[in-house]
Design a protein that fits this description.
Blueprint lengths: L15 H7 L7 E6 L2 E6 L30 H9 L1
Antiparallel strand pairs: 1-2
């Protein structure tokens, strides 16, 4: 058990080893619940971040007649939308 000191603003510092083990980084959200005279802190687990590479192959086009992204002309589409 580690002891921390509460600041004048009610802030505490979570010990670094605990932050590392739980994956707590800046911006993480924590839930605080009061259970009798005990404060329980629970890490709100979000959706883990991913990279573009991890999503490769998730979307597939089964209709060979569909247009390819390479065939799409943004300028032409904007002109057509303006008419």
């Amino acid at each position: 058990m580690q002891t921390v000191t509460v600041s004048d603003k009610g802030q505490v510092v979570i010990p670094a080893e605990m932050r590392r083990r739980l994956g707590i980084t800046p911006g993480c959200q924590l839930y605080f619940t009061l259970e009798g005279d005990v404060i329980r802190v629970t890490l709100k687990r979000g959706i883990p971040t991913t990279t573009v590479e991890e999503g490769y192959g998730m979307l597939k086009c089964t209709d060979p007649g569909e247009r390819r992204l390479d065939d799409f002309d943004v300028a032409e589409a904007m002109r057509e939308a303006g008419q």
